[in-house]
Amino acid sequence: MDSRKSVLFIGLDYHHYTRAILDEIRLAGFDVTNVDIQPRTLAFKIFKTVAAKRYQAYLDRHHRAAIDRASALRYDHVVFLQAHQISLENLARLRQTQPQAVFTLYNWDSLDNHDYLAHTPHFDRVLTFDYDDAQRHGFGYLPLFCVRPIQAARHDRARPFTVSMVGNIVNLKRYEAVQAFAGYCDNHGIQFDRYLVVSPVVLWRLLMAGIRPKGLHFRTISPQLFARMTEDSLAVFDYANHQQSGYTMRTIENLCAGKKIITNNKRVETDWFYSPDRFHCFEGFDFQGVRAFLETPIAEPERRFEEFHVQTFTRRLLGPGAEAELTSTQHG
Fold first, then answer.
1. How is the chain split among helix, strand and coil, in percent rounded to 5?
2. Which of 33, 90, 237, 262 is most buried (CB neighbours < 10 A)?
3. Is 89 in contact with 97 (CB distance < 8 Å)?
């Protein structure tokens, strides 16, 4: 008889990060059924924008069908990576069909960006990357993670006075911050390499605001180029897309990769991993002191911050009942 535990994972297929979590769960010997909570193709993004009600009706049918398929099995864990996309009716139905499962919700957006409070009574455990949301509502605090390829990044290829940025432009404010920092770098002899992705909707908003953006991409960066940019840069520029206290994926990744971090999230200054040789916090578009920061060497360049590795994240995501099993099989 197969004694392996099973996980029903319902989440946003976001770049390679969701797949990294799924890989860790499978590496631990769990059987995993994965359900995409919200299609992210260009066609569906346009569908959502131009016909919001019809899109939500489609999404409700998609979720109902997945719940009905899953009802043939009994899962030990049901894990949601975001839940605001699913209706309360469908969520209640899923709980009815899986009464024995531990239901866990993880959010890597703040409540200011997506309000999921109405969904939380349906979960046994609610975790969030946002420290303020966790404190305010009694949720578990679980920061984001660093995937295995970045954990293995070389530390000997960084060039002096080089800063990189890889991310999405989802609003005008972030685009303006990037442009302002690029101007600072041009004036202070700093090389600023960036790969910025924009959706057609946001590009249209930029154009309507009178901005003619250059150097933006519609496709996600390849893992190979991302790894090379990370290894080659001395520091990363981090500017959060939304109002949040949670640390971005770029902050966590570059901390683990041994990079210096230039960020507008001043909460890092009060956290256990902060040191002024690793972090420079700016306010508004004031980048004074960045060049001097880049000149300061990191005191412990080989420290890896395993506390933020995806292996550790996955153990905490599944909770105490599964932690022993995960720990016994994950050592990387």
1. 45, 20, 40
2. 237
3. no
The string of pLDDT tens digits covering residues 74-99 is 999 999 999 999 999 999 999 999 99
In this structure, which amino acid lies at residue 186?
A: D
Measured distance CA(153)–CA(43) in Å, rounded? 35
Q: How far apart are CA 318 and CA 238, in angstroms?
A: 29
DSSP string of 134-158, one letter each residue? HHHHTPEE----B-HHHHT--SS-P
Please, what's the b/e burial string for 215-228 (b: 16 or more CB within 10 A of its CB; e: otherwise)? ebeeeebeeeebbe
CB atoms under 10 Å from CB of 175, counted, come to 21
Task: Quote the tokens at residue 17.
Answer: 């990060």
Condensed to tens digits (0 to 9), the pLDDT of residues 166-184 reads 988 888 889 999 999 999 9
Query: β-pairing, 162-169 with 235-238?
Result: parallel
Q: How many Å separate Cα 77 from the centre of its chain?
A: 22
Name the token pair of 324.
């022993």
Angle ∠(212,214,215) on CA atoms, nearest 5: 160
Instruction: Check: CB of residue 124 under 8 Å from CB of residue 102.
Output: yes
Handedness of CA 133, 113, 125, 319 (dihedral sign): negative
330 contacts 24 by C-beta, under 8 angstroms: yes
SS3 of 192, please? Answer: strand
Token pair listed for 252: 């966590």
Contact present, 175 and 285 (Cβ < 8 Å):
no
Q: Which residues of 74-112 are buried (b: 16+ CB within 10 A; e: fewer)?
A: ebbbbbbbbbbbbeeebbebbbebbeebbbbbbbbbbbe
Residues written for the chain: 332
What lies within 8 Å, CB to CB, of 222 at 6+ separation is: none
